[in-house]
Amino acid sequence: xxxxxxxxxxxxxxxxxxxxxxxxxxxxxxxxxxxxxxxxxxxxxxxxxxxxxxxxxxxxxxxxxxxxxxxxxxxxxxxxxxxxxxxxxxxxxxxxxxxxxxxxxxxxxxxxxxxxxxxxxxxxxxxxxxxxxxxxxxxxxxxxxxxxxxxxxxxxxxxxxxxxxxxxxxxxxxxxxxxxxxxxxxxxxxxxxxxxxx
Length: 198
Description:
It contains 4 helices and 7 strands. By secondary structure, it is α+β, with helices and mostly antiparallel strands. The protein folds into 2 domains: 37 residues; 148 residues, no CATH class. A 7-stranded antiparallel sheet has the order 1-2-3-4-7-6-5, covered by helices on one side. A hairpin with a 5-residue loop joins strand 5 and strand 6. The chain is globular and about 80 Å long. The N and C termini lie far apart (61 Å).
């Protein structure tokens, strides 16, 4: 009888120790993983807000692997880009925006698109409480994004590889880029979203 009680006690201690060890390991992995994840909160609008305004479930960098987050495109075209590190490009046109992807092959030869730029194409798409979009004034953009960090010229030059003639940009959620081009009157001519660097 005493032996049985002692065995139960040992089993209980082992179970609690295993659960405790698993909890400590899980917490350590979570903390270790978080240090490699970008963390930055957008002051003006979150990714969720941009997605909602575009009429999609979420901003996704590989939407075709995530049950067609954007739905089927109205049209698409692909080409080889020889002067840039990503040789294969894919542009998909959706209502209100265009998405530009690089395409890579996985080990089984399946083509995997990775979003590099999402460009707003409709004047009806408006973002956030100040309704920023195509046609907004420079002053309205400055007011709306006043609390978001501006992208410096060097980073902006990198964004210009896929979004030529970009005039300015602001860092959004998790260090994504919100990019603007202005016309000669200082109004937004074009606006784009560039996902954070992976």
